[in-house]
Amino acid sequence: MALTALKYTVQEKALILGIESSCDETAASVLRRQADGSFEILSSIIASQDEKHAPFGGVVPEIAARAHMQKLDAIIDRAVTDAAVEYDDLSAIAATSGPGLIGGVIAGLMGAKGLAMSLDIPLIAVNHLEGHAVSPKLAGECPFPYLLLLISGGHTQLLSVKGLGDYTRLGSTVDDAAGEAFDKSAKVMGLGFPGGPRVEKTAASGDPSAVKLPRPFKGKDHADFSFAGLKTAVARAYEASDKSDQANADLCASFQQAVCDVFDDRTRRAMALFRKDISAEIDSPQRFVVAGGVAANKKIRSSLEALCNAQNFTLLAPPLKFCTDNAAMIALAGAEHYALGNFDAMDVKARPRWPLDGESARHNPASGFGKKGPKS
Amino acid sequence: MIILGLDTTGPNCSVASVDTAKVLAYKSEKIGRGHAERLAPMVAEVLADAGLSAIDVDKLAVCTGPGSFTGLRVALAFAKGFALPRKLPVVGLSSLAVWAAQADPMGQKKVISIADVRRGELCWSAIFHGQAFEGCVTQKAEAARATIATLKPDLILEDEIVDTRKLAWLAADLSAADYPATPLYSRGPDAKLPGGLEPNL
Fold it and tell me: Model pTM?
């Protein structure tokens, strides 16, 4: 039997199994795609590892990889059972093959290779970021183009999303991701993990102007981010404080405000770059999508809402279950590639880094194994 | 019964397909790294060489470790995925047990298998007269060697290569319930609690 990616043909109606394991969520989902391109999520199972990482105040890669290995087959099995389909009905297996924590990515991708070979159906290696980029479509109609702000524990970037595989990265973090800044801030203050919700809760009774913190890159004419300095400033301010409940509340509120200001400034810049990128009029109405776990923060959401109103953008935020890491978005990105016949060979690599722009959206050797680029 | 044997725990990437009477096809390549890329194509090649399709496989046998944590998960995850649709049994055996069976096929000797798991530590197992396909201990090299000497083994095996033909054959008579494909990690994950404390994992 020839197990090349070329031997498979595209069926008009397809059932795609998606697998996600790039950070601390083990997830699987079954999606049905119709001939007209419409789709339906038949199941979406997510097993979070938060409890395993909580004592460490952050995601520990080897703990994550072990947990993925342990749960992967049961989660996949549940996704297929919940979708009320049979394995033999599946048309293709789509799995995250990067960017992310490599131990977890390899576990998920190898499971996908095993499944695809066993069922003799195509394998589709999906860029995790492409999953996030198409995730607004999971919640309903969201036509291209749109400006995407992806803010999570592993990623912080602004993307011009013009179509499937057609992305321009307008800005990204040069050091830490936004979610990482929340987690690390929570960690130094002893608030627990994951940090986002804890910081938000503590900030509720604080004064956002109480502690003077930097707004990295504010006013710069690019749209990149930096959070390392802000993280350090929070640690210093905490050390210098009396560590009372009120001091912690003030620090959390001030930190959250600094992050809001940074998002406001960087996104405002990206909005101008986005209109330029798609050759749109200067005040033309456009769509703005915010995705990723950090988008759950209400303060950040309302600040971005105000910005959108002022800049003539419509804000779209996928519901949280599609906003954070999930496999439905991987199945969706996989389904779109499936329809185009974009299949991968059995030797496809897991990539710790895989920038999502232009020609590098798929199979860019420059972002291959071991080459350290900017965090993608 | 067709059994597929897989090993990605060491420098070699190896796949064998056997039935209860003979080896149908076998490959072993010393690649050092890149097991995640090489394994699946190698399985396809071994199946093709044997004139088999994926649907013909009845059972999988996987080496569970010790070895590189990422490496040992490559074959385990592949096998779990491969087994899922038809709920095939996946038997897991440690490399230590397979080495012993390779060197002492009749189970007549007192064998000690030792894997160097780095950081001055050895992961070892005593397999006497073919008994004990399970159980191993990770110790500082000096302590390990002292204990091993008191056991007066007939044969000491160190850092051998797993023969997946042997692995698959051994699995023929074993049940996945007794020998589950669970990773054999020679130590806990590298992680310190805030304040540099050792976690109790």
Answer: 0.91
